[in-house]
Structure prediction request, 227 residues.
Amino acid sequence: EAGVAQSPRYKIIEKRQSVAFWCNPISGHATLYWYQQILGQGPKLLIQFQNNGVVDDSQLPKDRFSAERLKGVDSTLKIQPAKLEDSAVYLCASSPLQGQNYGYTFGSGTRLTVV
Amino acid sequence: GQQVMQIPQYQHVQEGEDFTTYCNSSTTLSNIQWYKQRPGGHPVFLIQLVKSGEVKKQKRLTFQFGEAKKNSSLHITATQTTDVGTYFCADRREAAGNKLTFGGGTRVLVKP
Prediction:
């Protein structure tokens, strides 16, 4: 089966610019997650979607970050304006319906560098 | 909020030796998942533990869930160079929409 697709693979922007990341989960996976992984740390959940609805966005810095999952399939995460501390790898993951004992499948991530 | 802590942060192991990494939580863990992330790669799911005291094995890897469900461990025997990477534990909370809270990871380096 195809994995979780993410693009772009790398992105370098200047602070105060905007950037968008795209994720296409595994076909049929209802739940989609965006994680931020700062170098040397564990992934931190930014937002979780169940189909096209938001389940948890408590750790999403809503003043600058936004995400959507139109039609319950692929998703975009946007940062506007970017700050230096946003430099990290942004990982998208998906899993089947809630309540089942599956691990998450992660994409290869987008490495963002803000200069 | 919940904190999931892993020790040690770094583990230098001689090829062929055994080692153990530990995962501890300030609150009772719901379900523990373990992931491996190779350098430059993304986390890859290894296993999930659900029951108190549960032990599962995958070849040279042995995973254990504490009796009180406040800790977990991963033991690797006869370490190989292919074991290099960062091992993360994560608490999966069904009551919170299957939210995964990751620990900081144990970075494993293998000396040939």
About this structure: The mean pLDDT of chain A is 93. The first strand of chain A starts at residue 5 and ends at 7. The interface with chain B takes residues 31, 33, 41-45, 48, 50, 55-56, 91, 95, 98-99, 101-109 of chain A (CB under 8 Å). Chain A has no helices and eleven strands.
